[in-house]
Amino acid sequence: MNALIKDRLATAMFWVAAGLVLFIMGSLVGYILYHGLVSMDWQFITLSSHAIEAGDGIIPQIFNSCYLLLLTMIISVPTGLLAGIYLAEYAGCGPLAEMVRVAIQTLASLPSIAVGLFGLLLFVNTTGWGYSLVSGALALTILNLPFWVMLFEQSIRGVPRELAEGSLALGATHWQTIWHVIIPSALPALVAGTFICSGRVFAEAAVLLYTAGMSNPPLNFSDWNIYSTTSPLNPFRPGESLAVHIWRVSSEGMAPGVRRVADVSAAILVLAVLAFNFAACRLGRYTQRRVTGHRGTVPLLPFPYKPTTFLKNDKIFSRDRD
């Protein structure tokens, strides 16, 4: 078998693998959307949910999912950005930095159910907050913070070092270089990655089973006092998210038409995740045009691959030495 045949066989295998992935993903998304969209109507989306009565709705669950996402982002984004800047610009490659990176990678590999049980012990029982939105947001922060940190670190490392070196050569301090040069240059990848991680937070269920609860108190959407027990903005009230609602209805639902409720809820959840990915692409490209002044493509996962060595004139060169 000559090299040309091997190359064509390898190319065919890549196409088959890519097509298989697209077929599985398309079949799954198409099945969920088909069964959900045929039963969806505006009244179902805007009504409140009931445990055992017909005519169920999901407006409290949609609001709780969005509110949990907002609380989680308020905690996670600044913390992850500061940690990413530290690892990319200050930590270097010493033993402490490697230990921090190993800890982050280990934390990222924890199963979500284990993080949920940890949140139950710490935020629900030890603090005395009970099942609440703030407990769910803190548990979601523990689950997703490693991804935010790795995302921000790799996005900052992807900025060409020539930009930073030019800023330092002009007399700017390290912090001024980070704030005025590195972060604006990494902004397209930061924005795209933030929206993709937001979709992951929006669809999480296992953590919230043990922290945010599986019930909703009576809510008054005209009461915006954050301290009121009936206010939807009260972060210390229990709140069932849309993903948890799908699991509960499918496994424990007793109301008539639970299959319709689960199908429509799953379709809305899939549409929300797709909207987050679409917004990540659009906002990433818009930010890149604003920053660089030209159109470009922003990878969905902002982990730019930059080889440390390259081949030139049959010799291997190290990019670091250049």
From TrEMBL:
One GO biological process this protein is involved in is:
phosphate ion transmembrane transport
Q: Where found in the cell?
A: Cell membrane
Q: Which residues form the ABC transmembrane type-1 domain?
A: 62-280
Question: Which keywords annotate this record?
Answer: Cell membrane, Membrane, Transmembrane, Transmembrane helix, Transport
Q: What PROSITE patterns does the record tag this protein with?
A: ABC_TM1 (PS50928)
Which one of the record's GO molecular function terms can you name? phosphate transmembrane transporter activity
Q: How does it sit in the membrane?
A: Multi-pass membrane protein
Q: Which domain of life is it from?
A: Bacteria
Q: Where are the transmembrane segments?
A: 12-34, 67-88, 100-123, 129-151, 261-280
Q: Which InterPro entries match?
A: MetI-like, MetI-like_sf, Phosphate_PstA
Claim: Plastid is one of the keywords in the record? no
Q: Which GO terms describe its cellular component?
A: plasma membrane
Q: Which Pfam families match?
A: BPD_transp_1 (PF00528)
- CDD domains (UniProt xref): TM_PBP2 (cd06261)
- What PANTHER family does the record tag this protein with? ABC TRANSPORTER PERMEASE PROTEIN YQGI-RELATED, PHOSPHATE TRANSPORT SYSTEM PERMEASE PROTEIN PSTA-RELATED
The record's similarity note reads:
Belongs to the binding-protein-dependent transport system permease family. CysTW subfamily.
Q: What is this protein called?
A: Phosphate transport system permease protein PstA
UniProt lineage: Bacteria, Bacillati, Bacillota, Clostridia, Eubacteriales
